[in-house]
Amino acid sequence: MIYSISRKLHSDFSLFEENKLQARSWFIPFSSEDVLSESDYKNERYVSDRIQILSGDWDFKYYSRLSDIPEKFNTETETFDKAIVPSTWQRTGYDQIAYINTRYPFPKKPPHIPKDVATGIYRKTFSINGSFERRILSFLGVAGAMALYINGKYVGYSEGSHNTADFDVTSFLTDGENELLVVNYKWSNGSYLECQDMFRENGIFRDVFIIAQKQNRINDFLLRPKKNSDGTYSLVIDVKGDFSCNAGVTVECKGLFEETAINGKALINSLSVEEWTAETPKLYEVIFRVKNGSETDEIIRTYIGFRDIRIDGEVFRFNEKTIKLIGANHHDTHMTKGYAMSLDDLELDVRLMKEYNCNCVRTSHYPPDPVFLTMCDFYGLYVVDEADIETHGFYATPGTYRPNRLSNNLKWAPRYLDRVSRMYERDKNHPSVTMWSLGNESGGWKNHDECCRQLKAVTDIPVHYE
Predict the structure, then answer these.
(1) What is the DSSP letter of 23?
(2) In whole angstroms, how large is the CA radius of gyration of the chain?
(3) Using CA atoms, how far apart are residues 364 and 13, in angstroms rounded to an integer?
(4) Sign of the alpha-carbon torsion through 407, 411, 413, 415
């Protein structure tokens, strides 16, 4: 197939996403309770019959300069290498690995970015079968920016290396074999917000998969517990989805209440619960069922923990007890795989933190794989969930010390708000999330104020920024 590869998306400041779906809470759908029962929270995405994992062997071609890519890129005549997804270029023999603290790896002239950046092109062929009304292609992490093409057509664009990017690809797919192309730009305008003290790597470094959905489906949900004055809890359940006239949603919380029909939003009062803490990480299993008459069209499992977080004056209180957060920062860093940490790698880090008596982890400096947060829910770790924002390069170099340069410029506010909103929407149901962080070492303050106001409108959890 022939593709017209854009040479402008990564450097167009008016654009940081195109045709990307709104952020949603993390969940994996199943077709039935029988299939769901074969999985646990760690392997759901690999077991579900509604998920087609595309991770694995891909074709890959690396260009040190974007301008070297042919104007008409023909996948039938180009020669590709092989690459494993997830991985990064720098850990698999392409480009140069660099550890950078404060500096930008390109000339500091925001919002301008070098137009002729290194670029990787990923190709994957896969088959689609079965009658589903909607298919979503989900990328959990692509370092650098990405443009998506399917079967010769442009689909969309995304910045924000550590935020999930979902695209509705239903209209681009055909029954049988399909071809997917990801153009991975090393840098973009968004790279000005990713100047973090760490190894700088690129590539598709987390899982890629397709979600198949029927006409009746859940798109998002919110579970919001609130402690009452008598010690019981109330629970707000808010479900958003697409349903035909015969379809509805029921919800069950095992150990608390039986299967209950809900119409979009429900309030359940006077729940007597065991509270969640890092020392006693009590979770309750929640099951959502989308029913079309007597048939189940979709089933989703999640977990809820009940906790109350308050700041009294200058004292941090969790379930009405004074606590201190003692822990570690966590990067996606493996000694040989870099950013591309497996679920076993992530779980080992969680176990090590628990063994060393940590009770808290800060996801420095970006949202982690969503399953890392579920591990924290189960093992018991308070989480400071951090947005993928750092502009540390403006602190550096004598004569150009302007730490507030981007954070005080409201032209950048949409990008700040997008990164914070996508973090919140994906992670909002995790009981382990104890604080939201607006990023790291980015000066201030106007754009952080905008982000803080946005969060305060939807969550009671404390908002942190250094």
Answers:
(1) P
(2) 22
(3) 26
(4) negative
Q: How many whole angstroms separate alpha carbon 33 and alpha carbon 16?
A: 39
Residue type present at position 415: R
For residue 450, the tally of other CB atoms under 10 A from its CB is: 17
> Which two tokens mark 237?
């359940």
Residue 261 reports pLDDT greater than 90: yes
- Among 214, 251, 180, 250, smallest CA distance to 29 is for 214
Q: How far, in Å, CA of 141 to CA of 391, rounded?
A: 20
Does 400 have pLDDT greater than 80?
A: no
Pick the closest to residue 288 from 245, 225, 241, 246 (CA basis): 241
The pTM of this model reads 0.96
Contacts with 351 (C-beta within 8 Å, 6 or more apart), sequence order: 379
Phi, psi (degrees; rounded to nearest 5) at 35: -70, -40
Taking the alpha carbons at both ends of the chain, their separation in whole angstroms is 49
102: amino acid identity, one letter: T
Model pLDDT, residue 359: 98
Nearest to 427 by CA among 393, 389, 399, 455: 455
The span from the CA of 355 to the CA of 183, in Å, is 41
